[in-house]
Amino acid sequence: MAAPAITKGDLARLTTAYPEVFAKTIWHRLRPWLIALGILAYAGLSFWHFNLASLFEGGNWERAGIELLQWVSYETRPTIDIKGETLQISYNHYDPLGYAPNPAWITQTGGTRTDVAWWGDAYRMSLTATGAEIVNGADHLQFRNGPKGWVLDGPVPPSVKLQDGGARIYFGVVGNVELDKASVTIRKRFPGWANFFFDPDSPYWDKSWPEIAARMVSGTRLDPAQSNLALALDNFWNNANWQHGDVWTKLLQTIVMAFVGTLFGAIVAFPLSFLAAANITRVMPLNQLTKRFFDFLRCVGLLVWALFFTRGFGPGPLSGISAIFVSEAGLLGKTYTEALENIDNKQREGISSVGASAAQVQRYGVLPQVLPLFTSQALYQWESNTRSATVIGAMGAGGIGLKLLEAMRTNSNWANVCYMVVLILIVVYVFDGISNALRKRLIAGT
To answer: What is the pTM assigned to this prediction?
Structure first.
C-alpha cells in the first residue's frame, strides 16, 4: 500500500513543530547568489586577463569568412592584360577550368572590349583599355584609366577599396575584381569542389556522367595498356589536384597507428596491472613502483611523446604508433589496476577454497570479472586514439594529420582540408559506432 502524500497543511504543521530542521541558514540562502557572483567574477577576470575585447575587435573576421567559404567552393582567376588598346585574357596554368578555358561568362568583342558577368546583370563589368563600367548590386560604378591609374567617378561605396592608382571591388561571396594600370585580375567563385573526380589531364575530365559511364563499358580503349574502367579508376586515384591515393593511404596509416598503438598498450598494461593491484600482488613496493610507472607514462602526454619519438625515429607512422603505445600503456594500466582493486573477492576465495593454484585463482576468479571491462576500455581508447592519431600526425608522426597540416600551410587548399576533415569525421563516426556496439555486447554478456 502506497504511503499517503504530504499536503501543504501537513508540511506547515511539521515546519512549526520542528523549526530547527526546516529553517534555512544564512549560508543556504546566500549560496546560490555567491556561486553566481563567483562565476561572474571569474568570467570578468578571464575577459580582462586574456584581453578578449581587443582580440575580438582585432580579429580578421572577413578573412575567416572567406577561408570558410573556400572549404566548399573554388575560385578561378583570369587576368586581362592591357596592351595599348588591346585586351588579352590569360589563365593560371593550374586553373580549375583547365588549360585552355573559354567560359561563357567572359566575352570579348574585337579584342578591345571584355564583358564579365559574376552573377547575371547584378554583378558584372564592361572593360576597355580606358574605362570600366562595373555594376555591383545597387552600385553603378564608372572608372577611367588615365596616366595616374584608375579614377572612380563619384563617391566611393563601402565595397570599393582604392589603392595606388588602382582599385578592388568586392562582390561578396561571388568574387571580386582588382584594377591595375597594366592589368585587371578577376576572381569568380563557384560552389563545390572543382575536378574532384578527374583532373584536366584525364580524358574523362569535363565529361558528363552518362558519357563517362558509356566510355567505361564500351568504345575503343583510350589507353591501349588498360581498359577504360581501369583507366578511370587510375585517373581518380592519381588525381593531381585532390591526391585521393595519397590521402587514403595516409588515412589508413592513421587507422593503423591508432589500432596497433592501442593494442600494444593494452598488451603491456594487462600483466603490469596485476603487479600494481594491491589485492592481487601483496608486495607494496612493487605495487607503488608499478603505479608510479603508469603515472609517468600518463603525465608526459600524448603530444609530448609524439614529439619525442619523432625526434628519435623521424617523421612517420612508427613515431605515432610508439607515442600511442606508451601513452595507452600508462592510461590503460591505471584503469585496469583500479578495476582489479575493486573486484569481488568472494569468487577468488571460493575457487581458492577448493585447492586451486594461484594461477587458477586469477584465471577463474579474477579474469571473468574484469576481462569484459578491460576489453571495453581498450575499445573506447581505440576509438579515441583514432582522433588523437590525426593530431599527433600533424606533429610529425605521419598519417593524415601530416597531410592535413601540409594542406593548411599553403593557405589556399582549404577545399582539400575540408575533404580530409570529412574523411576523418566519417572514420571516427564509424569506429565510434563499432566500439559502442562491441562494448554494449560485452557489458550485456557480463
So the answer is: 0.77
